[in-house]
């Protein structure tokens, strides 16, 4: 199709009653049915956020069918729209650690001693995320706690297959640990922070550093609504928050499949754990199952997944055989015991809330110091809205204050 043909198709499509009805129903349904926590102080804003996140993916799909651009490219484009504006207090520059692009945020005011440093590993399922989208988060952290923040622009899937993401982040981390003095940073005060899928990267990097016994060590890890495992996809939080807000269960499964194989089909069987052999379920029951989730977190509903035939093909696809790669929660005790001081933020209204709860338990059982903040009206993705007036949620501001408090207390 040439460009005129595509535009003509777009025109036809946009002005057909079918599309109009489809989109109106979608918007209405999403707005009305958006699961809004009763505790939230911003119910309308939350509904709007939910509707927009559903809508952007749907519109992307339509554009893909019309041959205009693919869905992932469209969503990436939208996520990059927020313009960051001026920042008088920080020196911001782009550079590379080895071959990995990074953006460094340094406070302009001189400091008598070396500062703390923080590497920020973004979320987005390894598919989305760019310095544009996380600019405000990084600035807020650097400004708020007088830190040097390094944002890592790791390669994205599906263009770059897993584990390219982990290897880029590991390269950037080891480089920073070894060259921190060049950036005015104390090598013994380096924090690794990650949100959502970035949480799995943080935990996996710490494992690799522990295994290779390099020095200096990471001082602390900060996990913000982390994704930490692909073995049990039917935990209480998956069931309770299957409709979002924002991230829905189906969307997450689809994106997960796009990440591991470039295509997002076959989500139903995955949601019911068809990819997990019985032997593994038994082996890891003590660490990773609904039994380890405190009862109070089951009060919004939970029923054990109905048995479903095991799929060898799905198992191979999800690389469960290499269990700890995408599921750092399954690392052995010998590794977990050596993990640094940890801050975990979980949100009640988050599909993957229970990953954070289970990891917290694993760390505590291994005597690792854990600071935990459970945000009762929080939802997946809420960190991104910091300093974006008028989209900022009150829970976003409070969460950042708590994170900054943890950093300052180190
Ligand atoms: C830092 O560099 C030294 C010497 O080049 C090396 O032995 C060490 O493993 C490096 N540390 C890290 C964390 O990469
Ligand atoms: C954790 O600390 C307690 C109390 O000091 C001790 O009894 C226990 O064995 C420790 N557990 C591990 C895994 O080190």
UniProtKB/TrEMBL annotation:
The active site is at residues 196, 350, 380. One of its GO terms (molecular function) is carboxylic ester hydrolase activity. InterPro entries: AB_hydrolase_3, AB_hydrolase_fold, Arylacetamide_deacetylase, GDXG_lipolytic_enzyme. Residues 118-261, 322-383 form the Alpha/beta hydrolase fold-3 domain. The chain crosses the membrane at residues 7-31. Keywords: Hydrolase, Membrane, Transmembrane, Transmembrane helix. GO terms for cellular component: membrane. It holds the Pfam family Abhydrolase_3. Belongs to the 'GDXG' lipolytic enzyme family. PANTHER family: AB HYDROLASE SUPERFAMILY PROTEIN C4A8.06C, ALPHA_BETA HYDROLASE FOLD-3 DOMAIN-CONTAINING PROTEIN. This is Arylacetamide deacetylase-like 4. It comes from Eublepharis macularius (Leopard gecko). The gene is LOC129330972.
């Amino acid at each position: 199709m040439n460009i005129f043909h595509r535009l003509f198709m777009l025109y036809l499509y946009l002005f057909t009653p079918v599309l109009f009805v489809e989109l109106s129903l979608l918007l209405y349904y999403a707005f009305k049915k958006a699961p809004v926590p009763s505790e939230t102080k911003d119910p309308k804003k939350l509904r709007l956020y939910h509707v927009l996140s559903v809508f952007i993916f749907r519109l992307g799909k339509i554009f893909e069918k019309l041959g205009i651009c693919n869905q992932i490219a469209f969503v990436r484009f939208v996520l990059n729209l927020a313009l960051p504006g001026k920042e008088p207090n920080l020196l911001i520059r782009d550079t590379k650690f080895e071959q990995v692009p990074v953006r460094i945020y340094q406070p302009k005011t001189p400091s008598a001693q070396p500062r703390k440093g923080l590497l920020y590993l973004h979320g987005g399922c390894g598919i989305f995320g760019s310095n544009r989208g996380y600019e405000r988060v990084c600035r807020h952290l650097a400004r708020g706690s007088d830190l040097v923040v390094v944002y890592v622009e790791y390669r994205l899937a599906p263009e770059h297959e897993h584990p390219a993401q982990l290897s880029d982040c590991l390269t950037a981390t080891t480089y920073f640990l070894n060259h921190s003095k060049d950036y005015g940073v104390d090598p013994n005060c380096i924090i690794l922070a990650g949100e959502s899928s970035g949480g799995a990267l943080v935990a996996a990097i710490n494992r690799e550093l522990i295994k290779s016994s390099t020095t200096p060590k990471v001082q602390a890890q900060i996990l913000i609504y982390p994704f930490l495992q692909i073995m049990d996809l039917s935990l209480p939080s998956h069931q309770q928050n299957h409709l979002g807000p924002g991230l829905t269960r189906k969307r997450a499964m689809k994106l997960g499949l796009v990440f591991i194989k470039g295509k997002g089909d076959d989500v139903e069987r995955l949601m019911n754990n068809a990819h997990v052999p019985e032997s593994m379920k038994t082996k890891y029951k003590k660490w990773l199952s609904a039994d380890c989730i405190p009862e109070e977190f089951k009060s919004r509903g939970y029923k054990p997944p109905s048995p479903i035939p095991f799929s060898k093909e799905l198992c191979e696809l999800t690389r469960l055989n290499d269990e700890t790669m995408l599921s750092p929660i399954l690392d052995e005790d010998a590794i977990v015991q050596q993990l640094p001081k940890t801050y975990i933020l979980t949100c009640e209204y988050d599909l993957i809330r229970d990953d954070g709860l289970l990891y917290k338990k694993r760390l505590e059982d291994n005597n690792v110091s854990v600071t935990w903040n459970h945000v009762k009206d929080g939802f997946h993705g809420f960190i991104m809205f910091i300093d974006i007036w008028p989209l900022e949620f009150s829970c976003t501001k409070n969460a950042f204050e708590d994170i900054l408090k943890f950093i300052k207390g180190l």
